[in-house]
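Subgroup meeting minutes
Present: P.N., E.W., G.H.
Scribe: E.W.

1. P.N. recapped why we're keeping a running log of single-chain structure predictions: easier to compare across weeks, and new members can see raw inputs and outputs side by side.
2. G.H. added today's entry (207 aa).
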Amino acid sequence: MTKYKTVLTAIGLALALAACGEQRAAPPQDNPADAQQAAAVEIQTESERLNAFFEEVFDRDLARSPMSQTYLGIKDDYDKWDDISEVRRDEDIELVRHDLERLRTEFDPAKLDEEANLSYRIFELTAERTLAADRWRHHDYPVNQMFGWQSEIPAFLINMHQVADKSDAEAYIARLNGVKAVMVQVIAGLRLRADQGVVAPAFTFPQ
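Output recorded in log:
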């Protein structure tokens, strides 16, 4: 309950007691300026809490994606590739589901400023769409004539993995050695799709 509602409740109780013959001093009048300032502070506080939540989710997801770290110039996991296994995908979906639940239970859009409210709605919509689309996770072509891991891996190593010192070079070699494990996951995903009848058209393979 907000401070403003607490004040209103106290006033209502005082009036009821007065009607029953109790002698009570008249409560002080609310100061509109004070109430407005309190509301502004609450909005700012809630908006800051929401932004902290977004930052927490971003940092967590970034820590789970070595490739995203590299795109951002971060070298914490410079020798690793993303995990694209089904187990990791299941984990990611559960995290999105949990994030959406937290968003709706821990934050009230009515108590946010305009920008935070917009961010709330964007995050909510994105999470909803991610969860709804997961049923179709195998209805795509991870390898095709235009793009896919077979071209993304060399392009990533050439364009994104910068080698400035010995540790960068060692990380580069580690990533080269890790390509096989990535392709094992790619093949496993392709087989799951094939089992469901999702296979790229024959004309794409020669290309």
